[in-house]
Each structure stands twice: as structure tokens, then as C-alpha cells.
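#lab-general

N.A. 3:47 PM
ok so I finally got the sequence cleaned up, no stray characters, all 201 residues accounted for. can someone with queue access submit it? mine expired

B.Y. 3:52 PM
send it over

N.A. 3:53 PM
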Amino acid sequence: MKKLQLISKATFVVVDVETTGMSAIDDRITEIAMMKVQDGTLVDEFSTLVNPLLTIPAYITSMTGIDNVMVQNAPPAREVVPFIAEFLGDAIFVAHNAAFDWGFVSHTARRERGIEFDNQRLCTVKLSSRILPHLPSKSLGPVAEHLNITIPERHRASGDAYATALVLVKFLSYLQKKEGLRTVEEVLKFQYGRTSSFSRT
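B.Y. 4:20 PM
back already:
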């Protein structure tokens, strides 16, 4: 694993998953999107529906718009995991509520292919709590709105991942310019550290 990576030289992969429920053990991924960010620029992306091989609950369909018909011809997780592993590589894994997405991605890779991911993880919810402490809600919608970011399609993996990638770019720019952070390690520590203020500039 790389140490003391400069933020400007590091690769971040922003991930969003849609799932059949909240449990990484009992539920399954129905869609995944991954956005690769380098030096403040979105350079590559990967997304696919995933056949969960079980019935998608109606309340999930009402929220995401993903139903059983949509995923019936999609590849199952066992086929998708190698592509996830290749795309993610040794990049920093980023998500809005990273524990949720990491739980599904890492558990799925382990269950389906015996692959163990050990990527460094960065959570934009945690960054939001430190950079935007006075924002009442740190969920993606309010954070994106505060930063003048439009989410193309809410509660779909590509839309949410794209918006999260733009949030990440703005946060990294702020941390470098206003907080003087230079390395990925400093950013990873900052997500658990002191609060700050962020103004739209």
C-alpha cells in the first residue's frame, strides 16, 4: 500500500451501490457505479446493474426505481466482482457513508470470489461533518445542494456516485487551499479530526 501519497498524485475511486436492503451479509447489490478521480478530474467510470439472484423488495423499487425485470438479464455479482477489483485497484475507496458501500463491496468480493480488499477508505459524510459542521443534514442531497451540485438521478448508483465525486473534488480543493493538507494520509486523519468551516467560493 502506498504511503505519503500527495493528494494531487493519488487515485480516488468513488463508489455507490444500490442494494436489496441494509445488510451486507443478508442482502445483495443491485447496481454499482464507480468514478475514478485524479487531480480533481473525473477520468474514468464503471457502472452496471447486478442480478441479486433474489427478489427486490417493493419498498426498494419505489426508492431506486430498480425492479426485478430490470436486473433479470444483468450479470450476477460473481461475474461483476473481477471488474470491480480491476477498476478499484489500490485506489482510495470513497463513498458517502463509506461504511455502508464498503461493507457491501468487500463482503460481496469475499463471498463471491474470495477476494480481500484492504483499500484505504475516505467517507464524504465524515468530511461533511468536519467541513460543513452547521449543515443540518449531512446526507448527499443537502450536501450537494449546499455545494451547488446537481445529482443527475438520485438513488441510482451512477447519479449518486457522480455527485459524490464532485463533492469529493470540492472538499479536496478546500482541504488543500484552506487547511494546507498535502497528503492522502492527512485527509484520512482529517475525516476523524477537528471541525472547520466551509464557504462557497
